[in-house]
Amino acid sequence: MTDQDRTHPLEEGEVDLECVFTCQGIDLAQIYKSKLEAAGIPVLLSYEAAGLVFGITIDGLGQVKVMVPAEFAAEAEDILGVGEAETLDEGEEEPFGEPDEGEEETLPDE
């Protein structure tokens, strides 16, 4: 079998796809795609062409859905760490926590 005879799993017919992650911007989505493909999971990126052509990343135009076949969805979510809550170690503080009592919240001068 030559490379020309091989087909991508997503090209072999109708496949049930699941969105395992949604991100803002094609660059970040390409990184996630590469990570999943390195693990042997076929990936399709779904996005509005206008966002890519015009470079607009607001109002959902820059939104990219990372889609995988349903049978790989759980594995893909594990690889990407989807749904994992970040926990702080004991004694560690939130990086942008609430202001201390008596301390006023100030905004930088423009």
> What proportion of the residues form beta strands (DSSP E)?
15-25%
Give the strand order of the largest sheet, numbering strands 1, 2, ... along the chain.
1-3-2
Which assembly state applies to the chains in this document? single chain
Number of strands: 3
Q: Which parts are unreliable, with pLDDT below 50 for 5 consecutive residues or more?
A: none
CATH topology of the domain at 13-80: Alpha-Beta Plaits
The CATH first-level class of the domain at 13-80 comes to Alpha Beta
Secondary structure class reads alpha+beta
Measured between the Cα atoms of the first and last residue, the distance is 64 Å
Mean pLDDT: 76
Determine Rg (CA atoms, Å): 20 Å
Tally of separate helices: 3
**What sort of overall outline do the alpha carbons produce when their principal axes are compared?**
globular
> Which architecture of the domain at 13-80 does the CATH hierarchy give at level 2?
2-Layer Sandwich
Largest β sheet strand count, sense and barrel closure: 3 strands, antiparallel
Helix content: 10-25%
Could you spell the SSE succession in H and E letters? EHEHEH
SSE topology sketch:
Blueprint: E1 17-24, H1 26-38, E2 44-47, H2 49-54, E3 63-69, H3 73-80
Antiparallel strand pairs: 1-3, 2-3
Structure, described:
The chain is α+β, with helices and mostly antiparallel strands and 110 residues long. It has a domain at 13-80: 2-Layer Sandwich (Alpha-Beta Plaits), CATH 3.30.70. It has three helices and three strands. It has helices at 26-38, 49-54, 73-80, and strands spanning 17-24, 44-47, 63-69. It has a three-stranded antiparallel beta sheet. The longest helix is centred in the first third of the chain and has 13 residues, at 26-38.
